[in-house]
Amino acid sequence: MSVDATTVRRIAHLSRIAVSDADVPHLEDELNSILAFVEQLGQIDVSGVEPLTSAMAMTMRLRADEVTDGGYAAKVVANAPVSEDNFFLVPKVVE
Amino acid sequence: MSDLTDLTLAEARDGLRAKQFSAVELTRAHVQAMEQARALNAYVLETPEKALAMAAASDARIAAGEAGPLEGLPVGVKDLFCTEGVRTTACSRILGEFIPGYESTVTAKLWADGAVMLGKLSNDEFAMGSSNETSCFGPVISPWRRDGSDAAIVPGGSSGGSSAAVAAKLCLAATATDTGGSIRQPAAYTGTVGIKPTYGRCSRWGIIAYASSLDQAGPIARTVQDAAIMLKSMTGLDLKDTTSFDAPVPDFEAAVKRGVKGLTIGIPKEYRAPGMSAEIDALWERGAQWLRDAGANVVEVSLPHTQYALAAYYIIAPAEASSNLARYDGVRYGVRVDGKDIASMYENTRAAGFGREVKRRIMTGTYVLSAGYYDAYYVRAQKVRALIKRDFDAAFANGVDAILTPTTPSAAFGLGEKIAADPVEMYLSDIFTVTVNLAGLPGISVPAGLDAQGLPLGLQLIGKPFDEETLFAAGEVIEQAAGRFAPAASWWR
C-alpha cells in the first residue's frame, strides 16, 4: 500500500497538522518509505494469533471510586497560553 | 584530592559516607564540569543553585546520620521527566516554557533517596530519534571522537544528553527512557552502561509519554554496579500508573557480584543478520567466550520472528504516539498559534510546535489507525508482537537464563550522516534493541570494546521478566573482562 498527495493531506488533517504545498511531496516520499518498510509484516502467518495489547500480562487494579486528588484549579491552568478565572480559553466554537 | 568527577557513583557514595568530602564539594565539582562542557550541548537546563541547595541539605542529613541510599550524589535528568517547578520540554518547541506543577514518580524517588539534581538533559524530541539530532535545542555532541579526527559524533538517542553527560563525567549517572532502544543504544554509543528494566518496574507517571505500551525508564551510568544502585531507587509499585507492577524490588547491587556459573546464555542465531560487520560478530563471540570462561553454558537459541520486530515497532509506536501527542493542541500548555477557527488553531499550533520526525510519526500513526487500514497494519503488528513475545517465552522455557546480542549493528555515526537520509536508515540502528520493548523484557547494554576507529561498542543482555538481577550479574562479568572505556581526552573543556 502507498499514499498519494491527497491521502497525505487527509492524514495531515486527521492529525491536526497544517501542511504547506511544499511539504506534501517529501511527506509523501517519507511515509511511503516507512510503509514499504513495514510491508514485510504481510509475509507472516498470523492466523489464530491474538493481538498483544499489554506487554506484561496483568489485571487492572481497581480502587474505590472516590476523589483522591485535586482542588487546585489555578495550578492546573498555570501553563495555559490563555486562561481566565481558572478556565482554559479557546477560540469561539459555537455561534 | 583527585577530581571528584572521576569517581564512580558507588565510590562517591562510599566517600561521602566515610566523610572524605562533602556533598557540596562533590556537587560543586560536577557543576563546574557541566559549565565547562557546554560545547557538548548535553544539558538543556542547568540548575546549579538547586543542586547546591540539595547538596547542602544532604550534608545536613549525612551529619545527622539520616543519609538515604543516594544521599548527596549529583545526577542528571532526561528532559522527558517532569520536575516540579523546573522547566520540562521533551525537547519540543510545542511545550515551550512548560513548568510542571508535579514531579515524576521516578525522580521523586531519587530525591527521596537523597540524590541531587544538576539539571535537565537533552533528548530527541519526544524521545523520537536515535541520534539526539531532533532535539529543539540542537544536537548533542558525543564526548567520543574517531581516532585522529575531530568530526562530531552522535551520542545516540533518544537519551543522548544522558549518555553524553555520563560519558563526559558531567554527572555520576542520569535518568533515561527507552521505547525502542533509547537507553541501550546511546549507552553503547558512548561506552556507558544502560538498563531498560522490565515493563512495569518503573512508574511512567510524570514521564512525558511517547508510546505507552513500550516506554520504560531506567538509568545510564558508568559501571554496572552504578546502574544497579540507580535502578533500585527508581523502581517500585506506584498506584498512579496502572501498568506499574506489584513485584518486590530486589537488592540489585547485591546481584552484581553473583557471577554466571551454571547459567545458560542464549545466542539467537537470527541476529547473525547477513551483512553484519565482522567487527560486531567478533565482539559478540568474544562476549560469549567471557561468559563461558566465567562458568556459563552458552547455547544457540531461535527467535524466528525477531527480524520483523522493527517493522512491528514502526507501526505500534507511531500509533500510540499519534494518540498520546493529541494532547498538544495549544490549549492547556505550551505555545499557541492562532488560526481562523479552533481547528486551524490546532493545526497551526501543531505545525509550528512539532519537528519533522515527530510529525512524520504522528502522521504514520494516524494512517495505520485510520478506517480501512487498522486491521491491515495495527492489528497485524500487534499479532506479530505476540509472536515475538512467544519466541522469547519459548527460549526461557527451554532453560535459557539470559540472551546475549550486540546492542547495535555498528558504532556511533557522525553528526548529520543519517538525519538527512531516508528515515528507515536511522531506524535500523535500533534493530537489536526494539524486540526487547515489544516483549516487555529487561535489557542491559554494557561496553565491550572499541571499533577500528576507536569508538565504543556495546553488548546487550536480555533477561526474563523481572530478572534484572541476572543481567547485572552477567553484565558485571563482561565489564570485568572488557574493562571500562572513557573518551581519550576532555577536548570539550
TrEMBL record, chain A:
Q: Name one GO molecular function term.
A: glutaminyl-tRNA synthase (glutamine-hydrolyzing) activity
Q: Please list the reactions this protein catalyses.
A: L-aspartyl-tRNA(Asn) + L-glutamine + ATP + H2O = L-asparaginyl-tRNA(Asn) + L-glutamate + ADP + phosphate + 2 H(+); L-glutamyl-tRNA(Gln) + L-glutamine + ATP + H2O = L-glutaminyl-tRNA(Gln) + L-glutamate + ADP + phosphate + H(+)
Enzyme Commission no: 6.3.5.-
Q: What superkingdom heads the lineage?
A: Bacteria
* Enzymatic class: ligase
Q: Which UniProt keywords apply?
A: ATP-binding, Ligase, Nucleotide-binding, Protein biosynthesis, Transferase
Q: How does it assemble?
A: Heterotrimer of A, B and C subunits.
Q: Main role?
A: Allows the formation of correctly charged Asn-tRNA(Asn) or Gln-tRNA(Gln) through the transamidation of misacylated Asp-tRNA(Asn) or Glu-tRNA(Gln) in organisms which lack either or both of asparaginyl-tRNA or glutaminyl-tRNA synthetases. The reaction takes place in the presence of glutamine and ATP through an activated phospho-Asp-tRNA(Asn) or phospho-Glu-tRNA(Gln).
Similarity comment: family membership: Belongs to the GatC family.
Know the name of this protein? Aspartyl/glutamyl-tRNA(Asn/Gln) amidotransferase subunit C
Instruction: Give the source species.
Output: Camelimonas lactis
Q: What lineage is on file?
A: Bacteria, Pseudomonadati, Pseudomonadota, Alphaproteobacteria, Hyphomicrobiales
From TrEMBL, chain B:
On whether Membrane is a keyword of this UniProt record, the answer is no
As recorded in UniProt, its EC number(s) are 6.3.5.7
Q: Where is the active site?
A: 78 (charge relay system), 158 (charge relay system), 182 (acyl-ester intermediate)
How is this protein organized at the quaternary level? Heterotrimer of A, B and C subunits.
Gene3D superfamilies in UniProt: Amidase signature (AS) domain (3.90.1300.10)
Query: What protein name is recorded for this chain?
Result: Glutamyl-tRNA(Gln) amidotransferase subunit A
The residue range of the signal peptide is none
Q: Which reaction does it catalyse?
A: L-glutamyl-tRNA(Gln) + L-glutamine + ATP + H2O = L-glutaminyl-tRNA(Gln) + L-glutamate + ADP + phosphate + H(+)
Gene Ontology biological-process entries: translation
Tagged with keyword Protein biosynthesis: yes
- List where this protein forms a coiled coil: none
Organism name: Camelimonas lactis
Give residue ranges for domain Amidase.
25-471
Supply the alphabetized keyword list: ATP-binding, Ligase, Nucleotide-binding, Protein biosynthesis, Transferase
Which family does the record claim for this protein? Belongs to the amidase family. GatA subfamily.
Upper lineage is: Bacteria, Pseudomonadati, Pseudomonadota, Alphaproteobacteria, Hyphomicrobiales
**Highest taxon of source:** Bacteria
Q: What does this protein do?
A: Hydrolyzes indole-3-acetamide (IAM) into indole-3-acetic acid (IAA). Allows the formation of correctly charged Gln-tRNA(Gln) through the transamidation of misacylated Glu-tRNA(Gln) in organisms which lack glutaminyl-tRNA synthetase. The reaction takes place in the presence of glutamine and ATP through an activated gamma-phospho-Glu-tRNA(Gln).
Report the enzyme's class at the first EC level.
Answer: ligase
- UniProt cross-references to NCBIfam families, sorted A to Z: gatA
Q: Mind listing the GO molecular function terms for this protein? A: ATP binding; glutaminyl-tRNA synthase (glutamine-hydrolyzing) activity; transferase activity
GO CC annotation: glutamyl-tRNA(Gln) amidotransferase complex
InterPro entries in the cross-refs:
Amidase, Amidase_CS, Amidase_dom, AS_sf, GatA
